[in-house]
């Protein structure tokens, strides 16, 4: 099994069923790991360790044939991102505005986890109101990457991803509006899945926002599939949720490699600055695909960066950013600089455009990708263009430097964003290697609209064993306010 706190969910379930491992033993190991790593990583905002151990004891009785049969996630320690409400638990959303708010309802997503037997031992940190691709806040401080604490784990689901990489959870929830599942997965070497919009129910009013997705994070492709099959499926409270319920097959079940699978490869979507090390690891990932039997062809796909940024600004200005702006108008409101900057950027970059103007740009962006799927079963491209974002940096009015280009906004370093616009495409983010600064890099496996199974099949076929970081207690060198790219 290796180190118990890094056991996969599927392996843990097998060990539970054969009584080789107890849910109590696993929960104790995860809690002990969290207590050791949290002084550095800072991925867990709220902790429920005592209650988690009581739940683990009840799970153990189920595996012993008492109190009913084991459920699909029975006994698995799982962190839930703090943007999901759970009745009776704090619902801060990473904001000082809501530091004392307690949720009065439980989201469908969280309810499905709990009803499946997951042990919610903690809530993971996120950027304020999930407005940033990094994870720090005035409420929780800086969440750091276990592989290199000077670097952010990404965001907004950075706490979930960092906890997985650190070993302080077995499974994790996430949400993705501009790459917020896939970017943290890339920077921490874990697996993240952005399902097609509607596959997983979302709480109103954002259930009607096409950019918004609830999804999953895990350490293996099989674990991500396990969790996705629990949270997916229609719900009466989300009129956009897809029917009938879709169940992913076992991603490794075919066992026949990738023969006959046609994959388009783009290192930069035709118009995005990409770090040379990210490009190198993307090419190496393509070689693994070819070795598994896939036909991989480099494609001349052009997804204009400026148009993606323009469409996103219009979309956010007329929705999500407006909600954040309203939070800033609350009496005594104390928003982070990056949340204020998000509102300002969306208003300025949309420059008076209407919703219809944005939809017209989005249609133009869809066209070449739609044409590509007439020839290919999937598209592979980097998830993030950079080797990481500096931990604690707000990136107000500037982005990182990537391949010699100083970007105007950090979103320009995320090749994840176009696929929130192309929101019917399922996207699985998987590791592709490491940069010289010790930070993982990743690729996205983008499937045809609503073809969830193919990205999982591809990811499973080329998955490699990960050596997880032994998080020490180092002195970090990067300070909030630093503007350079991670070394």
From TrEMBL:
Amidase domain sequence ranges: 25-454
- One GO molecular-function entry: transferase activity
The alphabetized UniProt keywords are: Transferase
Q: Which family does it belong to?
A: Belongs to the amidase family.
Give the protein's recorded name.
Amidase/aspartyl-tRNA(Asn)/glutamyl-tRNA(Gln) amidotransferase subunit A
Q: Please name the PROSITE patterns in this protein's record.
A: AMIDASES
Does this entry carry the keyword Transferase? Answer: yes
- One Pfam family per UniProt: Amidase
Identify the domain of life.
Bacteria
